[in-house]
Amino acid sequence: MADITRRFGWRHLRSAPTAHIRHHKRGTLAHDGRGLSFWYRSLSAALSEVPVDDRELAMAFHARTADFQDVTVQATVTYRVSDPALAADRLDFSVDPDTGSWRGAPLEQIATLLTETAQQHTLDVLARTPLAEALVDGVASVRDRVATGLAAEPRLPATGIDVVAVRVVAIRPEAEVERALRTPAREQIQQEADRATYERRAVAVERERAIAENELASQIELARREEQLVDQRGTNARREAEEKAAADGVRTEAEAARKVRLARAEAEAARATGAARAEAQAAWLRVHGEVDPATLHALAATRLAENVPRIESLTLSPDVLTGLLAKLGRPEGGAAGRPEGRAGA
User: Where is the composition biased (Basic and acidic residues) (predicted)?
Assistant: First the structure.
């Protein structure tokens, strides 16, 4: 919007470089161009301001596909006014000479024209396209069709409007239909996730089985080595017992041989001792045989006295004493008058 200032009943207008100003004074075109600045009287001036910069028009409208599904189309159309004079003649771009604001709504008229034209071509395309295809390839086809349709629309050049670009942002179905369409893909993704989970679990089970087999093989190998160890220990114990038995046998044989030799030596010694004793006994008997009986009796009494206990006193009756003296060859009278006697050893 142009800047308008007041000075003593006059008005001064200063426009932007992107605005085309047309000033009519009493029906005559006084000023026509961009970025103008001039003085004028409000009672005799008719002003028009036409923007000539590129403008973005966002639009959203509903359409129906070939399978009777409602979709929402979001698009953006870039346009500009290429012929300001023609646009000012066809549309109301007049501004208030005191405030500089538009008296009408020319941009809304252009937006309605572009939106209805684009919607018409969009409906024509989507009405022949199924929903699935519209969601996949609909953006490109709708964009091309809307661009072609706007370029061929006769009202736009007649109004001095050029379409610079057409962009289709999205084509979206209803929320329930969109959720239903997402379900197969989600299920497939879930199946892929489940399959990956199952494969991971299968790999884990396989690895656990391999670990268990390795542990079992290790236990089997350990048991086999323990069996070998037990066998080796048995063999060693048996060999040790055999060696010990052999050593005991040798020791026993040596001890028996020693005892036999010792017995033989003792027998020889006993035999020699016996022979010597026999000879001594024989000699003793020969000696005793050659001695008279009285001597033998005396020797016997002496030996008896050597072997009997010590006797402090002995009491003999007269009869016994008489008999004993008789045996010793003494007269009986020698003991008369002595009924008791004492002997000491």
Answer: 237-250
Q: Tokens representing 55?
A: 């403008």
Return the sign of the alpha-carbon dihedral for residues 276, 277, 283, 286: negative
Query: Residues 137, 138, 141, 147: is their CA dihedral positive or negative?
Result: negative
Q: Tokens standing for 110?
A: 């252009």
Is there a contact between 42 and 72 (Cβ–Cβ < 8 Å)?
A: no
What is the number of other CB atoms lying within 10 angstroms of the CB of residue 197?
A: 10
CA–CA distance, 306 with 271 (Å, rounded to integer)? 30
Whole-model pTM: value is 0.53
The whole-angstrom distance between residue 273's C-alpha and the CA centroid of its chain comes to 98
Give the position of tokens 């052999």: 246
Cβ-based burial of 28 (10 A; exposed 0-12, middle 13-18, buried ≥19): exposed
pLDDT digits (tens, 9 = 90+) for 178-228: 888 888 888 888 888 988 998 899 999 999 999 999 999 999 999 999 989
Q: Distance between CA 116 and CA 110 in Å, rounded? A: 10
